[in-house]
Design goal:
272 residues, 6-stranded mixed β-sheet, 10 strands, binds adenosine-5'-triphosphate, binds magnesium ion, Rossmann fold, 36% helix, alpha/beta
């Protein structure tokens, strides 16, 4: 029997990502319950919902950290239910984490470069012996690291240990580490958490640019509804692991279920 193929959108293209009837639980806690949605190629899709709604768990499914209890995920028209983070990186899925997961004693440059650690072809021995393939790969990786630091205006800090940078710049380095592998799908878990309005605007501009100039499809978790409404084309709303809204920012903002479950109650302080 052939595995089911991804559904086709009205314009004839398959979505880059499709989640079908996914469930996930942890020791009796139902983190996600029969969740389905699709992300079209080239869109910025925001995932919103109150604390504990299952947003980060969903990203962990999408890049292979967890496997779903039930349901399937289709990426680029192909189903996967079990995919290791290594496979996800190889297939062009990059991500950042909610809790800054940088190497604080290493420089900005080394942190960005570390985003390519799952993309090499040459072996440890080839590197140790400085064989040609290893040298070529190292030069290519350095070029990409330079270009990524330039894109994010990080060149001035390249030799600074990340732990010495202000928080807003650390989040930018984390974005660089996810971006350096030139992912087709970028999963961003609260890239603006804890930032002031000016810093949020700055990160929003980088996300818009990487979407326009690099053509990346983005799935973004963000609590600030004002930012979400300005930045995204598509919004999926989760509440207690279930989908309570799915549409354009305007549709979602006008959806009474979303207002009841989320916008009006749980995070009223973040409304514009
Ligand atoms: N590794 C884990 N072990 C046990 N329970 C977990 C684990 N990860 C998540 N959970 C639980 O699953 C539910 C969803 O958590 P998740 O972190 O996905 O929510 P979230 O929407 O990202 O929340 P937040 O906005 O606070 O980041 C919560 O009840 C959480 O306690
Ligand atoms: Mg989370």
């Amino acid at each position: 029997m052939h595995p089911p193929t991804a559904t086709t959108a009205s314009d004839g293209s398959t979505p880059l990502l499709e989640v079908r009837d996914i469930s996930l639980s942890f020791d009796g806690v139902q983190a996600l319950h029969r969740l389905s949605f699709a992300v079209r190629r080239g869109e910025i899709c925001a995932l919103i919902g109150p604390n504990g709604a299952g947003k980060s768990s969903l990203l962990n499914l999408l890049n292979g950290v967890y496997a779903p209890d039930a349901g399937s995920i289709h990426y680029d028209g192909q189903p996967f239910t079990r995919m290791e983070p290594f496979d996800a990186a190889q297939r062009g899925i990059g991500r950042t984490f909610q809790n800054n997961a940088l190497f604080h004693r290493l420089s900005v440059q080394d942190n960005v470069l570390s985003g390519l650690s799952r993309h090499g072809c040459s072996t440890f021995i080839e590197h140790a012996l400085h064989l040609p393939r290893a040298r070529r790969e190292a030069a290519q990786f350095m070029e990409r690291t330079e270009a990524t630091m330039a894109f994010l205006n990080l060149l001035a800090y390249r030799h600074t240990p990340v732990g010495q940078l202000p928080y807003g710049l650390q989040k930018r380095v984390e974005l660089g580490r996810a971006l350096v592998s030139e992912p087709r799908l970028l999963l961003l878990d609260e890239p603006m958490a804890g930032m002031n309005a000016a810093e949020k605007q700055e990160i929003s501009r980088y996300i818009t640019r990487l979407h326009h100039e690099l053509g990346a499809t983005v799935v973004l978790i963000e609590h600030d509804i004002g930012v979400v409404m300005n930045l995204s084309h598509h919004v999926v709303v989760l509440d207690y692991g279930r989908k309570v809204g799915d549409g354009t920012p305007a549709q979602v903002q006008a959806n009474p279920d979303v207002i009841a479950a989320y916008l009006g109650l749980a995070h009223a302080e973040t409304l514009p």
